[in-house]
Specification:
- The structure is a single chain.
- The protein is mainly α and about 160 residues long.
- The protein has one domain: dinb family like domain (Four Helix Bundle (Hemerythrin (Met), subunit A), Up-down Bundle), CATH 1.20.120.450.
- It has helices at about 5-20, 25-30, 40-60, 75-85, 90-110, 115-120, 125-130, 135-155.
- The termini are far apart.
Length: about 160
Amino acid sequence: MHVTEVVERANKSFNKLIETIESISSQEQAAPKAIGQWSVKDILNHITIWEEEAAKAFEIWKVGIEPDWSHIADLDIFNDETVKQRRKMPLAKIKDQLQLIHNGVIENLKSVPDEVFIKRGGVPKWLITLLTSHIEEHAVKIMDYIKSLESARHKSA
């Protein structure tokens, strides 16, 4: 996938996520255990954490070194612990950080000369996944949560 395609899909995925969460109240976004063990707010933190990991790994990748993911021995434990560490952050700050990190990763990706991608075999698959599929996967879960809220509202009406 060419850089332009990755950027377009990443931004489309990201914008859909933001549009989706903005369709519910802050209280609904912060409701505990709305989606499994997490709130929508937790999911936003989780996505931010992984975009931060992507940003760090991409810096290493750009200079010709494959990122070492060994600091993440168990994905589930890593995800749970990192989200818990940020749970007390205000929702607005989480949203701001997510936007800043996402924009930074995208601008960094766009700034890399095509020759680097050609030499390295294209945009790394892990980066594509973190910027697109990962966000899309969580957006679907949030949409399902929103549907359950709407269903509950109709039943109580």
